[in-house]
Amino acid sequence: MKSNVAIVTGGGSGIGLAIAAKMCSEGIITYIVGRTADKLRSAQEKLGSNARIKVFDLDRISEIPHLIDSISEEAGSVDILVNNAGINMKKPFSDVSDQDFASILHTNVQSIFAMSREVVRIMRKQGHGSIVNISSMAAQYGIPFVIAYTASKTAVEGMTRAMAVELAADGIRVNCVAPGFIRTPMSAKALDSDPDRKNKVLGRTPMKSLGDPDDVAEAVYFLATESSKFTTGVVLPVDGGNSIGF
């Protein structure tokens, strides 16, 4: 079954933009969802005629059903969902407030649950669909100062497996990609300003370099499409060996 319509959350920049670009280049009508209209319009210009934009804040959980309904009515189907959007917070463990912790889980876990639930209702009627969630090295091993982010990404991996088992009978596959340290403007700024951290990252990465957003996009595309038609419930690290490096 050819995939015709995809949704990529956080598709306006970084890894999300690379994922959307791969989808569009393969002829898939791709809806990029994000908070900032200017950023989305700029992305749409780069992506070309297969790109569509939806300005939406995923923290507005109660409005997600309307968002998905509007895309479904406009596009006629939803074949792929990539849950890429997420936020991070770097704070010492004891400085993280209850509100801080809840905020990260709200965006990184509850919005993925709600997006997936609404899309699954459409995919069930179609009899097919593919969902790809985005995790992190924070769910593979311990990283200090990101307790809430770590909890959220570990939850995403657990949800991936639970969804995969429950939805397989409906023709819906659910997988996850766990990027390592990827070269984006945000990560470059953070690592270049902290040489010790950068050396630590590269020191435990056997391939001795940062990845490119396109590396993640290729893995997402593989899991989202018929190339992986007998694969569900996996967490695929795209990390240059970082998660198993010494």
Automatic annotation (TrEMBL):
It holds the Pfam family adh_short_C2. Coiled coil: none annotated. InterPro entries: NAD(P)-bd_dom_sf, Sc_DH/Rdtase_CS, SDR_fam. One of its GO terms (molecular function) is oxidoreductase activity, acting on the CH-OH group of donors, NAD or NADP as acceptor. NCBIfam families: PRK07231.1. Belongs to the short-chain dehydrogenases/reductases (SDR) family. This is SDR family oxidoreductase. It comes from Fulvivirga sedimenti.
